[in-house]
Amino acid sequence: MIEMKELKAQFKTEADSILNYWLGMIDNIHGGFYCFCDADNNISYQNDKSVLLHSRILWTFSKAYRVFGDERYREAAEHCFLFIRDHCIDEIHGGVYWMLKYDGNLIDDQKHVYNQCFAIYALSEFFLSTDNEESLNLALDLFNIVEKFAYDSKNCGYNEAFNCSWEPIPNYLVCDTSEGVLAEKSMNTHLHILEAYTSLYKATNSLMIQHKLLELLKIIRWNIIDSSGHFGLFFSSDWKCVSKDVSYGHDIEGSWLMDEAAKELSDGDFANEIFQFTTRMADITLSEGVDRNGAVFNELREGYLLDTDRVWWVQAEAMVGFYNAYQKTRRHDYFQAFLACWNIAKNQLKDTVHGEWHWKLRRNGEPYSDLPKVEPWKCPYHNGRACLELYTRLEIDELSSYEVAPQPTLFTN
User: Fold this and answer.
1) What single-letter DSSP state applies at residue 297?
2) Tens digits of per-residue pLDDT, 235-267?
3) Fewer CB near the last or first residue (10 Å), C or N of the chain?
4) In the Enzyme Commission scheme, what number(s) does this protein have (predicted)?
C-alpha cells in the first residue's frame, strides 16, 4: 500500500530543493537571474541573459508561492518580474526580446511566438499568485500582439518567427528538423501557446481567449496529432508534416496540457473527446516509449533512430502525464509508470552533490557531466512544475492509499 500523503511530502521536499538552488542564481547587481552555471556550480556572471529562461523562472516561483505561500518565492518572483518589465519588453513594437547582455542591454531583438507565449504564461501566473494587475495587463498586451501579427487567418494556427518590428523571418529557433528541413510551424510552439492561453483564460475568464483555446485544441487534434497517435513535430504553413521525428516527452507532456485546456471549455462533448484522445496518447507513450526500468525514452529521430537518453524534462513531464492518466482511469499501469519515472528522477537525475537535476543520463544511468545545470534551455520549469503539480494533485488524493478504482466521469456540463 502506497500512502499518497507520503508521496506528497516527497514532492514538497523536492520542489523546495529545486527552488532553493535557483534562489542562488539571483543577480542582485544587474537584476534578473544568472543564466549559465556548469555542472559543478560554477556561475558565469557575465553570460547573456535569456528572456525565455526568465519567463520560466518567473512562472516557477510564482506558482510555488501560490502553492506553498513561502515569501521567499514571492520575493524571487517579484525580482524576476521587475527584470522582465524593465528590460525584456519592446516598448515601441511590442513583444518580448530574445536575448540580453548580462547587464540587461539588448543583444537579440527577434520576436518568436514561442518566447512570447512563455512570457504570457509567466505573467498570467504571477497575476494569479499575487494579484499584480500590471502583470496581467502586460500578458494581455502580449496576447493582442501575438493575435495581431502571428495568427494565420488563411490556414489557422500561428506563424512563429519575426524580426523586431514583426516582419516574418526564417524559423531558425524552433523549427530545425533532424532531416534538415526549416519548417514554418511547429508542434512545440502551438502546444505552448495552448499552455499560455489556458493560464491567461484562468486569469481573465475572457470568452475570446476561451474561443482561442477551443480553436487551438482543434488544430492540435486534427492537424498536429497524426494517425499513429503521436504529435507531428514540424509543419509547412498549410499543415503538411515535414518530419518523421517522434518526441515521447512532448507526447506525454501534451497529454496533460491538453486536458488542462479542455477543462476550461464550455463544449463538454469536445472536451470529453480530448480527454479520451489524450488517454490514448498516454497509452502509446507507455507501450512504445518506456524502457525496461521505467525511464521514458527521449525521441525517435527520423522515425527509426531511438534516443535512449533519460532527459530531465522528459522524465518530469512523464511523471505528471502518467499520474494525470491514472487520475482519469485509475489504471494500475499508469500509477506504476508514474512511480518508475519518479524513482529515476530522485535516484539518478537528482544531483545530490551539487543540487538540481542533471540535464540527462545515458541509458546506464551515468550523467552527462559536461552539460550545464543552468542555460537558456535548462530551467526550473519542467521539474519544478512537475513537483508542484503532483503535490497539488496528491493533496486531493492524500486521504487515500493507492488502489485501483472505477473510471470516473470525465466532464459534465
Assistant:
1) P
2) 999 999 999 999 999 999 999 999 999 999 999
3) N
4) 5.1.3.11
Beta strands in 118-269 (DSSP E): 161-162, 185-186, 234-235, 246-247
Residues 6 or more apart whose CB falls under 8 angstroms from that of 373 comprise 21, 37, 38, 39, 41, 351, 354, 355, 356, 358, 359
Q: How many helices (H) and strands (E) does the chain have?
A: 12, 12
* Of 61, 95, 215, residue with least CA distance to 152: 215
Instruction: Collect all residues with Cβ–Cβ distance below 8 Å to 185 and sequence separation of at least 6.
Output: 157, 158, 159, 160, 171, 175, 234, 235, 236, 237, 239
For the chain, the C-alpha Rg in angstroms (whole number) is 20
**Backbone φ and ψ of 205, nearest 5°:** 55, 35
Q: How far apart are CA 164 and CA 93, in angstroms?
A: 7
Calculated CA dihedral for residues 274, 241, 226, 345, nearest 10 degrees: -80
Cell numbers at 171, concatenated: 524559423
What's the rounded Cα separation, in Å, for the pair 44 and 52? Answer: 18
Give pLDDT tens digits for 11-49.
Answer: 999 999 999 999 999 999 999 999 999 999 999 999 999
For the record, the C-alpha cell of 296 comes out as: 521514458
Residue 44's identity, in one-letter code, is S
Nearest to 245 by CA among 191, 284, 187: 187
| Assessment of whether the complete model's pTM goes beyond 0.85 | yes
